[in-house]
Amino acid sequence: MPAKRTPPTRQATTKPAPSPSRSRGAALPAGKQLAEYRRKRDFSVTGEPKGGDKKSAGSKLAFVVQKHAARNLHFDLRLEQVSEDASRRRFILSPAHCGGKRAQLLLNGRAQFPLAARLQRGEKVTLGEVFAFVSGLYFRGKLTYATRFSPEGESQVLVITTNRGLLPANTPVTLPDLVAFGSVDIEVDDERYRRPLERDLLLLAGADQLDVVLLGSVATNRYADILMAALRERLLFPVDFVGRGDMSRGALLLRATRDGVELPYRIVAGSVRRGARAPRINSP
Fold this sequence. Notes:
Elements: H1 30-39, E1 59-68, E2 74-83, E3 89-93, H2 101-107, H3 114-121, H4 127-135, H5 137-149, E4 157-160, E5 166-168, H6 175-182, H7 191-205, E6 211-215, H8 224-231, E7 235-238, H9 246-259, E8 265-267
Parallel strand pairs: 3-4, 3-6, 6-7
Antiparallel strand pairs: 1-2, 4-5, 7-8
Helix pairs in contact: 4-5, 5-9, 7-8
């Protein structure tokens, strides 16, 4: 009877443990996490905050849930820092269209209504007055709201123009100014519009710890993207603007002014800028 063969004994082998620096999912030391975050991002392309900024006095922290309707629906939770100190806030108003019929009414030398007559006589008329007439409810709501919640009224409310960058809402304007405003379209590739705006935004960005609230559409790139490139996470917008048209935004702002309650703001960078139609607000 043949002898029973004994199978060879396998020697156990021990794999070397991976080094902590190469372990999958290993957390970086706390001091290196922010550096690694910055290394992986190009902040000149995207609007994420760089981190490491000192928390300003009078600011608040709020948790925000953002819905991403991408290929796979998912939600992000983040902590936002927004200043509650009105003295650290500046409003920027989107412009009125000065090439339309209402602007032509002001330019008509035979017009006799009060605003046109004042312009014809060369009396002082402010940019805010002219744009409120040209645009109607929407700009009137923006100007009324911004004036109400600015610490120094119209002098701190800035208005985007087509060819002169940012101007205070109480800037005197003339008929030739109105003609010049109407001769330039708001297009990001038009240097007559973009360069003066970028110039003034650089000065505004140099103001330490100043938050800027855009009262205008954030769904288009005509001004929101230019402002965000200069101001980054300091550019805010009323979150209730999402899903509303111009008339609805104007009514919303007038209602908030009447009630004396400032709207909640959100950082433009990384926020959802388009949404479903919001409930209608009746004009005041």
